[in-house]
Write a structure and sequence with these properties.
- The complex is a heterodimer.
- By secondary structure, chain A is of the alpha/beta class.
- Chain A has one domain: Rossmann fold.
- In chain A, α3 crosses α5.
- The radius of gyration of chain A is 17 Å and the shape is globular.
- The termini of chain A are close together.
- The mean pLDDT of chain A is 95.
- Chain B has a single domain, classed as Mth169, Chain: A.
- In chain B, 34% of the residues lie in helices and 32% in strands.
- Chain B is built from two helices and three strands, in the order βαβαβ.
- Chain B has a three-stranded antiparallel β-sheet with strand order 2-1-3, covered by helices on one side.
- The chains are: A alpha/beta, B alpha+beta.
- The interface between A and B is medium-sized, with 24 and 13 residues.
């Protein structure tokens, strides 16, 4: 059975719906507090998937996700890097994406974990907490393990809820490398698939980036919340019957569990 | 003891949306002289050390490990004996 750790620390939220997304699909998911890993009571090697939920953590003091990342760097960073090197799966949603970026696990353009962050998720252009549904397009070309259940260029609705989600990179070179390597997972788009200006790009992210994966394709970070789009009825328009089937975010969890079950 | 006051601000060329909104608000209040506003975070850190050199080393490490994301930030420190 696929084992999933939903990591948390003081002030984490959104961990419950994240855990349920995995357990409803048959995985054995449990909460793992970072203190338990630090103190050796739980071990990362016992899991195939790590999930960083979002939300908030540690009051989001300093910068969103910065304290969570610093705590990991101070204790079990080496185990985490090993986890990635072994090809196991890591997903960071919202605050989780911010943590993975602060840790240098994303975008990791040179293939390895970077000592310093290569990107940042900074204050939204609107300076507001943007909490609503947006459209994202699957930009993956077969690299990202988590997106295998989406069609090429498929546009899906997902909800965002963040004040610091504007993805920026240090320089043009980093962005170009990410594009060349096929690391762009999701981009914000207008409902008709056209260029996303505000409000369709809710934060002003460069290149309309909503989610990225690492060059190996086993670490995904995204600002929208797939765990909040698990059931069809979570979408506010569900009674209009605009589409059939499940919530659009469910397939990320399905793809991760399938891959982990087969290969890890 | 030393007090290190650390100012963390956006690097030049990085958007500062909060600063922009505050500038707009000040302009609307009639302060037409306001050309630009930058928002910075200030940390006042009381250090149990005596030498400034030692303090500098410590603060530099704190900035690298937590206070600053070099992709978007730059920082400046002032020291004061207390």
């Amino acid at each position: 059975m696929v084992r999933v750790a939903v990591l948390r620390m003081e002030g984490t939220n959104c961990e419950m719906e994240s855990l349920l997304a995995f357990s409803r699909l048959g995985a054995e998911a449990e909460y793992v507090h970072i203190n338990e890993v630090e103190r050796g009571r739980k071990h990362l090697e016992d899991y195939q998937i790590l999930f960083f939920p979002g939300g908030f953590s540690a009051g989001d003091y300093v910068r969103a996700g910065a304290i969570f990342a610093a705590r990991i760097k101070a204790s079990f960073m080496r185990d985490l890097v090993k986890f990635v090197d072994e090809g196991k799966l890591i997903i960071g949603v919202c605050n989780g994406f911010q943590i993975l970026t602060e840790l240098g696990l994303l975008p990791a353009v040179d293939g390895a974990v970077s000592d310093e962050p290569q990107a940042a998720l900074t204050t939204n252009d609107s300076t507001k907490f943007e909490c609503r549904w947006v459209y994202v397009r699957n930009e993956d070309r077969g690299k990202c393990v988590f997106l295998r259940r989406y069609g090429e260029g498929e546009i899906i609705p997902l909800p965002v809820a963040h004040a610091e989600g504007k993805f920026v990179v240090r320089d043009e070179n980093t962005l170009n490398k990410m594009i060349e390597e096929g690391q762009i997972a999701f981009r914000y788009v207008a409902p008709d698939g056209g260029k996303a200006t505000y409000p369709w790009n809710p934060n002003g992210s460069v290149h309309d980036i909503a989610g990225i994966c690492n060059p190996q394709g086993n670490v995904l970070g995204l600002m929208p919340h797939p765990e909040r789009a698990f059931f069809r009825i979570q979408h506010p328009d569900w009674t209009r019957d605009t589409w059939e089937g499940d919530g659009a975010g469910k397939r990320i969890f399905q793809a991760a569990i399938e891959y982990a079950g087969r290969k890890l | 003891m030393l007090r290190a006051t650390v100012f963390v601000r956006y690097r030049e060329g990085v958007d500062d949306p909060e600063g922009k909104h505050i500038k707009k608000a000040l302009n609307l209040l009639g302060f037409s002289q306001v050309r630009d506003v930058g928002v910075a975070k200030t940390y006042e850190i009381l250090l149990d050390v005596d030498g400034e050199e030692e303090a500098e080393k410590l603060v530099e490490e704190m900035a690298r490990k937590l206070l600053v994301n070099p992709v978007i930030h730059e920082y400046e420190v002032q020291y004061e004996r207390v």
